[in-house]
Design goal:
mainly alpha, 5 helices, globular, Putative modified peptide, Mod_pep_NH_fam
Length: 84
């Protein structure tokens, strides 16, 4: 369900890739469902309410705010954090 917390292991992988991997960032920007499936999330449609975020934060910004992002993504906010 949209807003459902992401599993901790998926969040760690997601943030690792968003902070370091340009190819994954492009995939996430253009097809979140495929990106989440690639990192092992079952039923990624349940987490893709924000179909296309306007623009991802920079890799540096993701790394600098990683702890806050982890907290948000594993809370009931789920993927909605990338709408902002």
């Amino acid at each position: 369900m949209a807003g459902e917390p992401l599993p901790q292991n998926v969040v760690e992988t997601l943030l690792d890739k968003l902070a370091t991997d340009d190819t994954f960032r492009d995939l996430f920007q253009n097809d979140q469902e495929a990106a989440l499936k690639q990192i092992g999330l079952k039923n990624p449609k349940n987490y893709c309410e924000c179909a296309h975020p306007p623009k991802l934060p920079s890799k540096q910004a993701i790394e600098q705010t990683r702890t806050a992002l982890q907290s948000q993504l594993t809370s009931n906010l789920g993927m909605m954090v990338f709408k902002a």
